[in-house]
């Protein structure tokens, strides 16, 4: 089966045509799971000249990939562990992640940007300790360095976060990492794949796997929107289902050794402007040994996270206990405490924790992702958002070798995502007549395609005082594959992750559009 027809930026994403094409299909690579890993594998396969399709039982990025801490990081904690244990594997992880951090920032500058993080320090010995460690982080960054770490005075800390209780502090240390809009970055990845001739269907379940001569060779699927049955045969099947990895592995091989456990991490969105300078705060260790963040994010303050054992579920939510935990531990560092009344939204994500059943070395893994094979089905699991591209490359290298595919080399190293191919100054000219907050928001969300969004309808605000506009609803449904209210509100506009009350008001205007689609 050849690749689908490539789309131009102003061409709609015709989901029904993709469903029709996949009713009886034969592709080189079938990817199951539409988070960061799955979308990355789809892009990588297409870059090698292969035909590829992706299916996901929920929406693209609906799980862990849209519920992260929104950081693109090299792994400061990995570096600390490498230093303490002389673990060369973790040292390499940091270097690799720093290179991938730079690639993400270049791939979509409107969706990913540098961020200064400040670490408050309570002891005099802590200042040189953190400064030395972050200085090494600077050194390892090399040409990928975003800025230089430095010691901050108590007054500088107070300016960064006026609510911070500086009385017990000796100062702080600042350094730079990256931040991004995780869901929109992921949706841009999938849209890019569609434009390159790939197939991608959200809300499409895998009912059973196809096995030929002892090898997994495709899947029987069901479109949960229209009810159609799909038979997708493939030379290679890749499992990118994150926390659900073992579930699909057991479908392929009931005797497979389980490798997955999950924990939950929650985040709070705070209405208060706790970080007026746009710099984040990293609390390196609470009294129970956890790391906490306060980060500026899309006009709110993002606070998190927890790390507790969890059960598998499609849509985890933050419990009262978890919310109280975050509030309690953040207030230990603030002299202007936050309360539940300050919370505009919460979200919870499942963190996939993986062990490699074949790993024998006591020196640790050379990567923080694991690639497994069950009857020829390749499972890619573990890892983190920052290294999605390298994970996909490693995975597809194995897929090509194991399946004997005729493929070119990976060509994602210098890729650009939709919205990142034009000049910002020129692109913003099309937004010049809009209110400043709407223009800034549209640029951040859509980059140089913001003018295409405006063509889809009115620039009327959907909610008074917020930058979301009517045209975005049509764009999400027709150009970004959205099918259900939460697809639009949580992963296209992001209002559902930022302000639950505003999302509820927009939902009423969205329902008629979905019914007419």
TrEMBL record:
Residues 28-386 form the FAD dependent oxidoreductase domain. Transmembrane segments: none annotated. GO terms for biological process: glycerol-3-phosphate metabolic process. Its cofactor is FAD. This is Glycerol-3-phosphate dehydrogenase. Residues 410-515 form the Alpha-glycerophosphate oxidase C-terminal domain. Keywords: FAD, Flavoprotein, Oxidoreductase. PANTHER family: GLYCEROL-3-PHOSPHATE DEHYDROGENASE (PTHR11985), GLYCEROL-3-PHOSPHATE DEHYDROGENASE, MITOCHONDRIAL (PTHR11985:SF15). One of its GO terms (molecular function) is glycerol-3-phosphate dehydrogenase (quinone) activity. Coiled coil: none annotated. InterPro entries: DAO_C, DAO_C_sf, FAD-dep_OxRdtase, FAD/NAD-bd_sf, G3P_DH_FAD-dep. Belongs to the FAD-dependent glycerol-3-phosphate dehydrogenase family.
């Amino acid at each position: 089966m050849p690749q689908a027809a490539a789309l131009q930026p102003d061409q709609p994403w015709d989901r029904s045509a993709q469903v029709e094409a996949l009713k009886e299909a034969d592709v080189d690579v079938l990817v199951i799971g539409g988070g960061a890993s799955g979308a990355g594998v789809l892009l990588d396969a297409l870059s090698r000249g292969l035909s590829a399709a992706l299916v996901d039982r929920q929406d693209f990025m609906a799980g862990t990939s849209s519920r992260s801490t929104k950081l693109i990081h090299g792994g400061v904690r990995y570096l600390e562990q490498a230093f303490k244990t002389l673990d060369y594997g973790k040292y390499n992880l940091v270097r690799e992640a720093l290179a991938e951090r730079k690639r993400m920032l270049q791939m979509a500058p409107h969706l990913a940007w540098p961020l200064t993080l400040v670490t408050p320090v309570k002891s005099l010995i802590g200042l040189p300790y953190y400064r030395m460690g972050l200085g090494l982080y600077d050194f390892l960054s090399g040409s990928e360095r975003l800025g230089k770490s430095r010691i901050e005075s108590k007054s500088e800390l107070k300016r960064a976060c006026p609510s911070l209780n500086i009385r017990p502090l000796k100062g702080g240390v600042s350094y730079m990492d990256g931040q991004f809009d995780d869901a929109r970055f992921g949706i841009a990845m999938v849209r890019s794949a569609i434009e390159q001739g790939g197939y991608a269907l959200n809300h499409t379940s895998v009912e059973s796997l196809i096995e030929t001569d002892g090898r997994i060779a495709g899947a029987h699927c069901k479109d949960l929107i229209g009810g159609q049955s799909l038979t997708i045969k493939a030379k290679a099947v890749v499992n990118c289902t994150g926390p659900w990895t073992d579930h699909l592995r057991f479908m392929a091989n009931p005797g497979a050794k389980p490798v997955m456990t999950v924990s939950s991490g929650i985040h709070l969105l705070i209405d208060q402007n706790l970080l007026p300078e746009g710099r984040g705060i990293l609390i390196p260790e609470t009294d129970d040994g956890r790391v906490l963040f306060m980060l500026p994010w899309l006009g709110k303050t993002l606070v998190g996270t927890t790390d507790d054992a969890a059960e598998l579920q499609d849509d985890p939510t933050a419990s009262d206990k978890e919310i109280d935990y975050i509030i309690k531990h953040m207030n230990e560092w603030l002299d202007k405490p936050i309360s539940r009344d300050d919370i505009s939204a919460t979200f919870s994500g499942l963190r996939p924790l993986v062990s490699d059943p074949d790993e024998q070395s006591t020196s640790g893994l050379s990567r923080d992702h694991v690639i497994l094979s069950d009857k020829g089905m390749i499972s890619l699991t573990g890892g983190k958002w920052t290294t999605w591209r390298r994970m996909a490359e490693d995975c597809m290298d194995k897929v090509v070798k194991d399946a004997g595919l005729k493929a070119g080399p990976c060509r994602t190293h210098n890729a650009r995502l939709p919205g990142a191919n034009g000049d910002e100054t020129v692109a913003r000219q099309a937004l010049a007549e809009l209110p400043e907050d709407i223009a800034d928001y549209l640029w951040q969300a859509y980059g140089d395609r913001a003018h295409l969004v405006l063509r889809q309808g009115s620039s009327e605000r959907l909610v008074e005082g917020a930058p979301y506009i009517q045209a975005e609803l049509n764009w999400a449904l027709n150009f970004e594959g959205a099918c259900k209210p939460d697809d639009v509100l949580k992963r296209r506009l992001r209002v559902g992750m930022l302000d639950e009350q505003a999302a509820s008001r927009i939902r009423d205007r969205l329902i008629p559009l979905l019914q007419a689609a």
